[in-house]
Amino acid sequence: MEKLEKLYEGKAKILYKTSDPDLLIQYFKDDASAFDGKKKGTIVDKGVMNNHMSSRIFEYLEENGVKTHFVKNLNDREMLVKNLDIIPVEVVLRNVAAGSLCKRLGIEEGRVFEEQPILEFFYKSDPLGDPMINECHVDIFGWATKEEVEILKSEGLKINKLMVEFFKERKIRLVDFKVEFGRHKGQEVLLGDEISPDGCRLWDWETNEKMDKDRFRFNLGSVEEKYQEVYDLICTP
């Protein structure tokens, strides 16, 4: 598949057009950012690891009935994906209290939500810092239909259940994560973007040691080493 001109460049990935208008090449960068872009840096080989980890997780989700934009892994830094019209609503699933939830509600980090995960919506806008929203905002501003919102919720919960088990088998606790969805050919809603330690909080199952981008955010050190550890647990046969 020939890679043509750049369509979009974000903080961690670049999308390229191909000769097929329905297919794009998603390239993973080593760039890292935090706090709405206020902190920037590089995590060596992050792009390579995130590409392979996302590919493996997309394959796992597809095998378990979740429809995604993933087509195939092309090489160390690129995957072939379906062209989606991204819905500007990030879906966040929380299994353990951490991050902004603790700051907003004064909850101690580490509280496990035993009965059910917390599902939240955020408006996808870097200039605005991805503010938290609710279904009323989504409806009034026309970001998604009521039917699409139900899909975002049901698929988000389904993905969470599958991923909790996926990571638990690898002795990793899935604390929280965000996913994005888009319309394929203006109709079917598919899971898009990526799933990696960039967008997931992952803790060691026994020690609760952080194994994700929080190590970069809060200068905890051993960033590349922890990404590599997660990579090995996910991608090693």
Cα distance spanning the termini: 27 Å
Order of helices and strands: EEEEEHEEEEHEEHHEEEEHH
Largest sheet: 5 strands, antiparallel
- Overall mean pLDDT: 97
- CATH architecture heading of the largest domain: 2-Layer Sandwich
Could you name the CATH homologous superfamily of the largest domain? Answer: ATP-grasp fold, B domain
SSE class: alpha+beta
- Can you tell me the CATH topology of the largest domain? D-amino Acid Aminotransferase, Chain A, domain 1
**Assigned CATH class of the largest domain:** Alpha Beta
How many helix segments?
6
The total domain count is: 2
Uncertain runs are none
Could you give the order of strands across the largest sheet?
1-2-3-7-6
Number of strands: 15
Percentage of residues in strands = 25-35%
Q: Sum up the overall morphology in one term.
A: globular
The amount of helix comes to 25-40%
